[in-house]
Amino acid sequence: MTSRTSLPSWQKLTAHAEEMKQQHMVDLFAKDSERFSKYSIDTSQFLFDYSKNVMSDETHALLLNLAKECDVEAWREKMFTGERINKTENRSVLHTALRNHSSTPTIVDGKNISEGVQKALNHVKAFSDKVRNGEWLGYSGKRITDVVSIGVGGSNLGPQMVTEALNEYANDEIQVHYVSNVDGTQVANVLRELTPETTLFIVSSKTFTTSETMTNATTAMQWLVASSFNKSAIAKHFVAVSSNKEKATAFGIEEENIFDMWDWVGGRFSLWSTIGLPIAIYLGFDYFVELLEGASEMDYHFCNTPLESNAPVIMALLSVWNTTFLGSQSQVILPYDQSLHMLPAYLQQAEMESNGKSTSWDGKQISYTTVPALWGEIGINGQHAFYQYLHQGNTIVPADFIGSVESLIPVDNHHDILMSNFFAQTQALMQGVTEAQVREELTAKGMPTEEIDKVAPHKVHKGNRPSNTILMQKLTPKALGSLVALYEHKIFVQGILLQICSFDQWGVELGKGLANNIHAELTDNKISEHHDSSTKGLMTFYKKNQIS
Ligand code: G6Q
Fold first, then answer.
1. CB 372, CB 329: distance < 8 Å
2. pTM value?
């Protein structure tokens, strides 16, 4: 298989990157008054401006050539038609089939999977309606007031991020809580506030073998049974989302209370599936459908827009440009929207678990940097914390700014103030401030020259720090669906460009296996001699100091 580094576009980009490292975006903007209109894309749900990147027309053309030489369009076709592109697990990758609202069903290996998807959606609708309208009752005949979703990783982050993002759309008659951590503090804190008679548990686990989830589910079940004194209460209070019916029923969940999942949906791409059940219960099924529709609109954009104006394709190309060619090591996600506070954590898993790898499709070591470390925080809070580093640190951190024209809850002039900061920050990161500008400003303020000499170097901002801006009209279920799908497709294209299998996560397995062995040793109090001295020393200290 040809390695990416031998592609003509790759080699040209490598040479071109050296030239572009000498360019400043201020000059690029000064030279081209059309830069914003050329380098922004209006999708149906938001405006995507990528003009504030260290990129020229030549860069743009070379990047598009890279996409073509990597056969992005052919790979896209393979994904949407169910080819087993998850090579290391021999699976199709079909989260897009979960939001396929076209009249053409998704057929895989001669099987119409859209029928199963529709059946599962009907199950979600029927059940979420019953819980919401009070038809579904707890063991003592009371309606459900609280739902606890137990799951971790891909079975937690998506639903939790969405319910928190869209809580303005919920009527709050039912509260949804999440338990993901095996640290007993979390489950204890959640249960402390709840009444067993009116609490419904959703155990979300595709495999139904994840030990953290099983431990939390067992604790929840004991809590319920201790209150009801009756195991039959489980049928009224426990449902599961899983592709492993056998394990779920063996755990004690009634078969009709198990929601279908499929192996062609990866955990971190699963919020559109029955894993989204907590979303449907919290917001109502209609909003869940709107979320799917928003994602479907992005699928349409991704499949039908030429590469040069295709938002996820451009986003992926820019990530590779900034990271692999220009040398950035991290990327920051900055939502200027309180409701999107979990988006950085969600995208962290989506991108880093997908493409944080160093082996190519054909099992060879990759010589170039693949993906950046993703991190982030609500914009304004970040401004008063780590933006110093973004503006004047020694490393360049490309940023994604995400905001809305309209506020979810308009309060006086808050939104204009918020968005003024949003625009100002992208401008400041791009333009910076030269020493001459600093001196001029301080002189105008009347500062003596010797003081200016001292302070001026500290006030210089080099600028030339790249950012993308995503501007929605308003954070709606549709807009959020589209935004998440934008990143999903970016990650897919990024994987293709970097020659990475984006849909496995072998790096998560190693620690899991070791933890199981160590747990057995801690329980039996038999610490193996085979551990390195550090691990053995730490385990011994832990055991010795445990209070039994
Ligand atoms: C995501 C990963 C991982 C997974 C969790 C939970 O893509 O596969 O985060 O979602 O490990 O797995 P289960 O749903 O099987 O419990």
1. yes
2. 0.97
